[in-house]
Amino acid sequence: MFRNTLNFEEDISLGFSLPAGKGAKLWRDRKVSTENSKELKYNKPKNAIEKFYFYLRDEKNRSRINDAIKKFGLMDFDVYHFDGGMDFFRDNRFARELKKHKKKIVCCYFGSDLRTRGIFRELDELSDLNLTVEFDHLSLHKNINYIFFPFDVYSYKIKKRNNKKLKIIHSPTNRRFKGTDKIIEIIKEVEKIRNIEFILLENVDREKVLEIKGGCDLAIDQVGGEMGGSGYGKNSIENLSMGIPTFTEFTDDYLSFIKENPFIHSTQNTLKDNLLSLIDNENLRNDHSVRGREWAEKYHSFESVSRVLNDHYKKHSII
C-alpha cells in the first residue's frame, strides 16, 4: 500500500502516501499510547470524523486499487495472506469478493498491530487460518498459531570481527518501544570503564544500516521498553544472521517458549554486567556469534518456516 521510507526492497507497491506532518504523527502516537491492550479488541472508528476519513480514503484509492487487482491478476491465486489482518479497503470488500470465489484467506499479524489497533471482526470471521510472529499475541487471540518470522538468513555472511574498540549498535524504530533512553544511560556507565563505541542508528536507509552493522561487534535490541512487548524482531534476526551477539529482554513465559535461543537476556538491572561479560571475553563473543547464526538457520530460514507453514496449511485445509 505504502512505499517504505527507508528504501527497503519493494515488490509491488501502490505508492500511497501516509498522512505526514506533526498532526498526523501526534494522532498515530496517541493511538499507540492509548490503545495498547492486554485483551483482544475489535477495530472500529473512534468517532464520526475518523469513520468519515477512512471512507474518503477508500473512495480516493478505489480506482487505483482496482486497477492494480486487474493489472497484476490478483484474483487469480488460491491462497491470500493479509499481513496485519488488513484488507486493501477498510470495509474488507476485497476479502469478501475472494470468499465468493472460494479462495482461502490467511491473516498474519506482525508487530504491534494486534495489540494497539485490534482486529477487523469481519476479516477475522472470513479467515481460514490466523498466524502470528509475536509470542504475546497467543494470549490475545484464542484462535491463532505461532510461526517464526521467515528470513533470508543465507544471504548474510558472518564476518570476522574483533575491533580493538568494540562497536555496540542499537537501531530502534521506536525509542519508547525499545527502551532507548534507558539503554543510553547504561551505555554511558559502560563507557566510563571500557573502551567502546556506541552507535545509535535511527531513520537511516537500509543499505547504510547494513554497511554500518556489518562492522559491529555487539547489538542491543530492546531493554525496558514500553508497550512494545518483549523479545526480538526482524532487526535481531538480521543481527544473528550476521553473527552479531544480541542483547534483549524477554518475559519469563517468552523465554521458556523459545528454548535454546542464543540471545543474551538482559533487563535494566543486568544489561551492564552482561555487556561487560562479552566485552571482556572474545571467546564468549565468538561462541554467541556461531550459536546465533545456527539458531537463525534452524528456526527463521525460509526452508524452516516453509515446512511449518505447510503443516498449518494442511491442518486447516488450506491445501
List descriptors.
13 helices; alpha/beta; 2 domains; Rossmann fold
Descriptive report:
The radius of gyration is 21 Å and the shape is globular. Helix 7 (180-191) crosses helix 11, helix 9 (234-241) packs across helix 12 (282-300) and helix 12 runs parallel beside helix 13 (302-315). With 319 residues, the protein is an alpha/beta fold. It has helices at 22-35, 48-71, 93-100, 113-117, 121-126, 175-178, 180-191, 206-213, 234-241, 252-257, 271-279, 282-300, 302-315, and strands spanning 79-83, 104-109, 129-132, 145-146, 166-170, 196-200, 218-220, 246-248, 264-265. Strands 6-5-7-8-9 form a five-stranded parallel beta sheet, sandwiched between helices. Strands 1-2-3-4 form a four-stranded parallel beta sheet. The chain has 13 helices and nine strands. The protein folds into two domains: 22-146, no CATH class; 153-300, Glycogen Phosphorylase B (Rossmann fold, 3-Layer(aba) Sandwich). The mean pLDDT is 90.
Q: Number of helical segments?
A: 13
Structural class by SSE content: alpha/beta
Q: Overall mean pLDDT score?
A: 90
For the biggest sheet, the summary is:
5 strands, parallel
Model regions low in confidence, pLDDT < 50 over at least 5 residues: none
Q: In one word, what is the shape? A: globular
The CATH architecture assignment of the largest domain turns out to be: 3-Layer(aba) Sandwich
CATH topology of the largest domain: Rossmann fold
N- and C-termini, Cα separation: 28 Å
The arrangement of helices and strands along the chain is HHEHEHHEEEHHEHEHEHEHHH
Radius of gyration: 21 Å
Relevant CATH superfamily of the largest domain = Glycogen Phosphorylase B
- Roughly what fraction of the amino acids lie in strands? 5-15%
**Strand order in the largest sheet:** 6-5-7-8-9
| Count of domains | 2
For the record, what CATH class of the largest domain applies? Alpha Beta
The count of β-strands is 9
Helix content: 40-55%
